[in-house]
Design a protein that fits this description.
This protein is an alpha/beta fold. It is 48% helix and 15% strand. α1 packs parallel to α2 (41-53), α1 packs across α9 and α4 packs parallel to α6. The radius of gyration is 17 Å and the shape is globular. The model has no long low-confidence stretch (mean pLDDT 95).
């Protein structure tokens, strides 16, 4: 995808590891200058170093996506440093407690909703304000296959990702005529640390779920990142208000 986003400026939240890091690297490989945003400074620094060592340009900005002043400052810093904001991947999120509803603490629900939904809400507001001022842009939110079909042991997470899908579609409808495209990716099982946590101590269940995917394998963070970059590019110019499954689970 070299040159697909040449000269663009991309912002990625949750970029210290996993899908977020892969997305930041993919944006850079496509020619974009990248803002690496996360609460994890050490992981984010590693992401920035990986980009710069490959000849790209990146800036780390520490952000807590649940706090409006942090998010506002993130977009302001992006524009101050790079001059504009063309693409955003709102990826920061958390899995929360892995358990059926009656075994899940109430504060888990609050925290998951705060990060996964309010975080996307706040990022969208700040990003869209900037994109309106400059005449357009493209945004991708990270939802999940659990936000389409549910999950018996991740009720709060699943509810939060359903909310991300609804938020994506609603906001996309509002700003489509302003040149701002907004989509969501809904990854199935992706081979990251979160997957290891989800199936901790259950290798047989993990293998069963792998066999249950349509392609017979788990996805990679890089494959999700490639989809995100494509959605932000002119190659996807007619795509908006979509919740796109990637690595569908049967």
């Amino acid at each position: 995808m070299s040159g697909l986003l040449e000269g663009k400026v991309a912002l990625v939240t949750g970029a210290a590891a996993g899908i977020g890091r892969a997305s930041a690297l993919a944006f850079a490989a496509a020619g974009a200058r990248v803002v690496v945003a996360d609460i994890d400074a050490e992981g984010s620094t590693a992401t920035v170093q990986a980009i710069t060592q490959s000849g790209g340009e990146a800036l780390f900005v520490r952000v807590d996506v649940t706090k409006a002043p942090d998010v506002t400052a993130l977009v302001a810093r992006t524009v101050e440093h790079f001059g504009r904001l063309d693409c955003a991947h709102n990826n920061a999120g958390m899995l929360g407690t892995v358990a059926p509803l009656i075994d899940s603490p109430d504060d888990n629900f609050d925290r998951v909703m705060d990060v996964n939904v309010k975080g996307v809400w706040l990022c969208l507001k700040a990003e869209i304000r900037q994109m309106l001022a400059q005449g357009g842009g493209a945004i991708v939110n990270t939802a999940s296959s659990a936000g389409v079909k549910g999950s018996p042991t991740l009720p709060a997470y699943s509810a939060s990702k359903h909310a991300v899908v609804g938020l994506t579609k609603s906001v996309a409808l509002a700003y489509a005529r302003d040149g701002i495209r907004i989509n969501a990716v809904c990854p199935g099982y992706v081979d990251t640390d979160l997957l290891d946590r989800l199936f901790a101590g259950e290798p047989e269940r993990k293998e069963s779920e792998r066999r249950g995917t349509l392609l017979g394998r788990f996805g990679s963070a890089e494959e999700i990142a490639a989809t995100v970059v494509w959605l932000c590019s002119d190659a996807a110019a007619l795509m908006t208000a979509h919740a796109l499954p990637v690595g569908t689970v049967v």
